[in-house]
Fold this sequence. Notes:
Elements: E1 5-9, E2 15-18, E3 24-29, H1 34-43, H2 45-61, H3 70-73, H4 76-101, E4 108-111, E5 118-120, E6 126-129, H5 137-149, H6 158-167, H7 171-190
Parallel strand pairs: 1-3, 4-6
Antiparallel strand pairs: 2-3, 5-6
Helix pairs in contact: 2-4, 4-5, 5-6, 5-7
Amino acid sequence: MHDYELIRSRRRTIAIEIDREGRIKVRAPYNVGSLEIRRFVEEKSGWIDKNLQRMRERRDAFPDQDAADGAEITSPELVGILTEEARMIIPPRVEHFAPIVGVDYGDIRIRHQRTRWGSCSAKGNLNFNCLLVRAPEEVLDYVVVHELSHRIHMDHSRAFWAEVARVCPEYRARRRWLREHGDELMRLIYGTGTDRSGMD
């Protein structure tokens, strides 16, 4: 049986999240009993083991990733590893924040792009850059809130930023982090700084 951190909230379903350090977090409604939660985790043990193994392989393949040079880390293998990690981390954050913003959403796609951290289509489909998993967690959460807020305002009007601020009061600092450090993240894949700090 895996050890996990239990986080209860007003959500309607149980969900499992594995953070970038390999810690397992289980999010559950207040009215779901501990036995039911434990059974759910046991049923998902195969999924947990598979994704923990992927994260271990990633750390073994790139033990000093922050210090790696551009030539070493521009490989498709790294893109694949970051994409898989993002698929584990980002959808649970979207699921967490969607009811707080008060919106629904369509498909979630993970991409590696030179000029976008995230985008939201008119149909509610969300795109996120795989490199966000290398940003601080609060920065990733800001991008998630930013894109979900476009489900209410498909622009960058005052009303849009007011909605972002309602859920993420410190969004300006997190946005500034992307502007100041996004170039470093882009170099992980592209070898040269190409960041435009873009979001739609």
